[in-house]
Amino acid sequence: MASRQIPVHISQQFDKELNDLRANVLTMGGLVEDHLNRALTALSNEDFEAAEYVATHDYKVNAFEVEIDEECSRILLKRQPAAGDLRLVLAVSKTITDLERVGDEVEKVGRMALDLMGSDSPKSYYVGILAMGFHVKKMLHDVLDAFARMDSQAAFQVAQQDPQVDEENDAIMRHLITYMMEDPRSISQVLNAVLAVRAFERIGDHANNIGEYIIYFVEGKDVRHTSLQDIEQELKLSSKRT
Amino acid sequence: MASRQIPVHISQQFDKELNDLRANVLTMGGLVEDHLNRALTALSNEDFEAAEYVATHDYKVNAFEVEIDEECSRILLKRQPAAGDLRLVLAVSKTITDLERVGDEVEKVGRMALDLMGSDSPKSYYVGILAMGFHVKKMLHDVLDAFARMDSQAAFQVAQQDPQVDEENDAIMRHLITYMMEDPRSISQVLNAVLAVRAFERIGDHANNIGEYIIYFVEGKDVRHTSLQDIEQELKLSSKRT
Questions:
Q1: Total domains, chain B
Q2: What ipTM goes with this model?
């Protein structure tokens, strides 16, 4: 099965609770996406206000994590969910941990953007960083979209991009090393760029993790630490069964 | 209350399941600690075998994560735990995610150690990295010990070390930047050291997170994103209540 609707329960109230839970994850995801957009604007336009906003507003993301986790505990306690409902609550609980950590990485990018702006080192190495930033931004967007539709095929599409992000990362790192060697005075600044690249790589990893939780919920199978080929095979078998 | 025993249940089988769950987390934690020890040996003794072992054995840690998470789902489904039991299962589910990510960081350190060994750049910058590595190794050990005893005060002691790790990180980074500026040919190698330092910093963060889950289980209060002062206050109030 490629996507899954929340089953209708005898208790309409329980349905509402599960729907609200999903909606809250998407609101949290939207907030994290907004921060990532601002971080990219900060880097591309040297926008001081955007960078400062991102560096100081992560508390909003954190508050969502605590609130949604409380809601998960409350549902587990009150509803004692089984099967797909239990998997949904567990997938949500893991997803928000990854979203919170995306928030942490974006906050770091904001702080690095502030540091980079204060310097007069050449900015042409921004280009590669930004390309990677826009790539992981799209991954985050796509995986949240897959979450909204609980679409395991769309979640798998995101996971498939992980090797590509790794390649981009290696290419940019080589580029940044060349920069530092050519102009050793820029090392301290370029190191900020190195750490921004690492932060983007992490964001890609987290998007990948969220994709795996979606597949766990939809397919009932834990695909963490499973090769892309094996996941693809699993999804094919699953679509034949339905 | 500073520590908490698992309450005795009418079902001895359920008691056994919860005890096994905790024991499995400690076994997984012991494995991660073993890998971290090997990574530090690899760096301090230029021990190729230790580095290669660490760079290729993370799959063992991953397998534990999947197995323990399945056990958590099974207990939630079959036992529908309440209160402290539910908090225990949720704390375990979060703890193993952090342990798995410590495993990822240690694997990276192993790969970096392999890269560093292949080079002829000066090794004196190892000293600072190693000091930080031994510090976060102790944090991981202490937090696993706090988990074994479910001791929220001991968990808080670990969390208190986080600012110190950040300071160490900043000092080592300045040191490494100086190295790179003095010898630009070493940049590519020293960058491996920079990323090893980042990996150690992360391991400290994960130990801190695990400490917060222990406090959540013991005190019934989510202290993530709470200042050290506020957590300390909470623990003082709690110990007065008991």
A1: 1
A2: 0.90
